[in-house]
Amino acid sequence: MAFDPWGARRKLNNPTSNSARWTISAMAPTSVLAEFAKTHKNVATNRGFTGHEMLDEVGIIHMNGRIYDASIGRFLQADPHIDGAGSVGGYNRYSYLKNNPLNGTDPTGYFSLKKELKNGWNKVRPLVGAIVGIALAVWMPWDGGFGAMVAYGAIAGGAGAAANGGNLSDVIRGAAIGGASAAAFFGVAKAIPSAASAAEAGKNAFRIGKNAWMTAGNFAKLVVAQGMVGGVMSVLQGGKFGHGFASAGISKLATPGILSMDNVVAESIASGMVDGTVSKATGGKFANGATTAAFLYAFNAGSTAVKDAQKGQVAVDKALDRLRSEVLRMDGKDSESYKNALKMTGTFDESYSGVAVIDGKSGKAIFGRQFLNPSASDEMSVDATKYFNSLSTSDRQLFVVRHELEHMSAHNLSIQRNYQMQGIDTDRLPRYRNQFEIDATNKTYNWMKGR
Asked: What percent of the residues of the chain are helix, what percent strand, and what percent coil, each to the nearest 5?
């Protein structure tokens, strides 16, 4: 079977004459091959050069999506898609393969899905490292510590190099750069003092993480330090120091506003867009700026909430384990306190602003952000307050869990029931006048002193 470059059937007019061996027949019904196709439909000869259905009777080709006329090399309907907005030929929505039919086929009559997927991948792959980094920082399959962050960065850097066609040495180099970048961004943020609340940070505080605030002076130091890291990272990626410095620095300046989205993925993307735009505007590459910003955000501000939640739950679990051990040693295995300690459970809730609260009957306790660094409460006596403030953080946390354990005791529960019988709303009662809180605090103070 023979076809011209545009898909029309050829017919053999004079096989003995070299000068007129082939002529183009635009689907001529008298064509020998066309006639053969009509009478041998089960031999798949109704399929043309491109594999489409040849409707020889009417001189057109059915390409599923649209109808094609091989005699004029044009579709009879416009392509609803623009095939390649960067090419002039892509805007001729009636042309076949951008007027280059010998370079491929058009299976559907529409644009090339394979080509579009390839083009899409080519646009995405420079950002693969950043995407993997964000995913790992949000998921955190290990923890939020320094070593884990370095590992996440190394994985992201190696994945980015592999996605861009790098060989083994490129992947190793990408992993090394990614790990070093994560370590630098994470380390810089940890090195500059921050506070858990705006009130603690003081006047004109800047929010740099989910639960992290800095004074204006420290925030300025952080912007410069992060900019320096971004500049070095840009050089390692083949860019210029100035582009990376400007991108990372401006991204850090935008952090307080970006955090208002309250979604780590959206915030990381927004940070990447800011940095990429700045990098492009200053003569650098969008991908380099976006990658730097995504790394900065994912391994710094964006992971704060996850790290706090993980760190908080670890602290709660350690305090409860220590409580059970100490109660067993001091009170004995048959004591009410030890039985209650075994029953007591603790959940860290990053959204709870208090220290701790417990359901004395079920033993289910919730610990809030203040549990990470608890302070003396109103119902403590002067001596108890002085003692509490002298304790280490882990001992103060032990004090808190023991205090909550006291609320499970029969004596403390009877005080609570007495309030309820009087119709007193203990939630609105000042803590220093709340007798079951004072009872729990005093007994906890005496127990801690007796260890």
From this structure: 60, 10, 35
Q: Work out the pLDDT band at 401, boundaries 50, 70, 90.
A: very high
| Residue 1 forms part of a structural domain | no
The DSSP output letter for 90 is G
Query: Does one domain contain both 323 and 286?
Result: no
Where in the sequence is the domain holding 240, given as residue range(s)? Answer: 125-302
Q: What is the mean pLDDT of the chain?
A: 77
Looking at the fold, whether 172 and 268 belong to one and the same domain comes out as yes
Q: Provide the pairing of β-strand 212-214 with 356-359.
A: unpaired
Query: What Å distances lie between residue 274 and 129, 131, 181, 247, 441, CA to CA?
Result: 17, 16, 19, 8, 51
Q: Kindly state the tokens that stand for 425.
A: 């709303």
Residue 403 is classified by DSSP as H
SS3 of 241, please? helix
Place of tokens 């005791």: 409
Which tokens in the block code for residue 389?
């403030």
Q: How many domains does the chain have?
A: 3
Q: Residue 249: which of 269, 270, 279 has the closest Cα? A: 279
Is the domain of 294 the same as that of 361? no
Helix (H) or strand (E) holding 24: strand 22-24
pLDDT at 308 over 90: no
| 303 in Cβ contact with 144 (< 8 Å) | yes
Residue 40 has, within 13 A of its CA and on its CB side, a CA count of 11
Distance CA 263, CA 275 (A): 18
Specify the pTM: 0.42
